[in-house]
Design goal:
Blueprint: E1 12-16, E2 26-31, E3 39-42, E4 45-48, E5 62-66, E6 70-78, H1 88-96, H2 102-106, E7 114-119, E8 122-123, E9 127-139, E10 145-156, E11 174-178, H3 185-193, H4 199-206, E12 219-223
Helix pairs in contact: 3-4
């Protein structure tokens, strides 16, 4: 138990199948034996300043657009508690996130897996792995690495514009989505709003009393924004 009496949650990296349709299924996870001491998230905007010839004051810069969010986290991997285990498999999984997934290569649209950093109730934005750097610090007599520190840099994958209703910019606009096999209100909320706990928005918008008994094929009304469209 944590110091405040709550359950200790282990952080992990969810590795997702890449998709251009907004739906990304989990393929595997990399569980962290120790939670990170810290992580950082940054976001920047692009501005362009053009000097005005002969002017005494600088001209107002022009906003060019928002840059995607970036996240850096340091992961400590340790297998000293196992007689024959090592960290090689976890490291290979992290490195594979920088290599095109085989199915996407066959479709002539090569893409590495997508990822999300998950820690208890915290789920990061969907991202791709921009960089992996690993430092091995402890080995078995045969050279197998059993302890390593991996530094990850993740960059946000922007939401597809098609997820918005193209006929209206109103906060109360909606679109429809047919629930597929394996989907739930939580997974749809995660894809649409970036937060699986927003499933209540979908339940209220569709008059659903039991979110665990929604059949595949059900057509859902999806508010364009999490607080919209009651």
């Amino acid at each position: 138990m944590a110091a405040n009496g709550s359950k200790l949650e282990r952080a992990y990296l969810s590795v997702l199948r890449p998709s251009t349709a907004g739906r990304a299924d989990e393929m595997t996870t990399v569980e962290f034996q120790f939670n990170p001491r810290e992580y950082s998230i940054s976001k920047s905007a692009s501005w362009e300043s053009k000097p005005a010839k002969g002017a005494k004051k600088a001209a107002m810069p022009e906003f060019k657009g928002s840059e995607p969010r970036s996240m850096t986290v340091e992961v400590f991997l340790d297998r000293t508690d196992r007689e024959d285990g090592d960290v090689a498999a976890d490291i290979d999984t992290l490195f594979s996130c920088c290599v095109p997934e085989e199915q996407t290569v066959g479709k002539n649209k090569p893409s590495p897996p997508f990822v999300q950093f998950v820690w208890g109730k915290t789920t990061s934005f969907t991202a791709f792995v921009k960089q992996v750097s690993v430092k091995y610090t402890l080995f078995r007599p045969d050279g197998s690495p059993i302890r390593a520190t991996a530094s990850l840099t993740l960059q946000e994958i922007p939401r597809e514009p098609g997820n918005q209703n193209p006929t209206s910019g109103s906060p109360s606009s909606r679109r429809s989505h047919q629930l597929l096999d394996g989907e739930s209100l939580a997974s749809v909320a995660h894809r649409e709003y970036g937060d699986p706990t927003r499933w209540r928005v979908l339940a209220e918008a569709n008059g659903i009393d039991d979110p665990f008994r929604v059949a595949a094929g059900t057509t859902l009304l999806v508010p364009a924004t999490p607080g919209a469209g009651d």
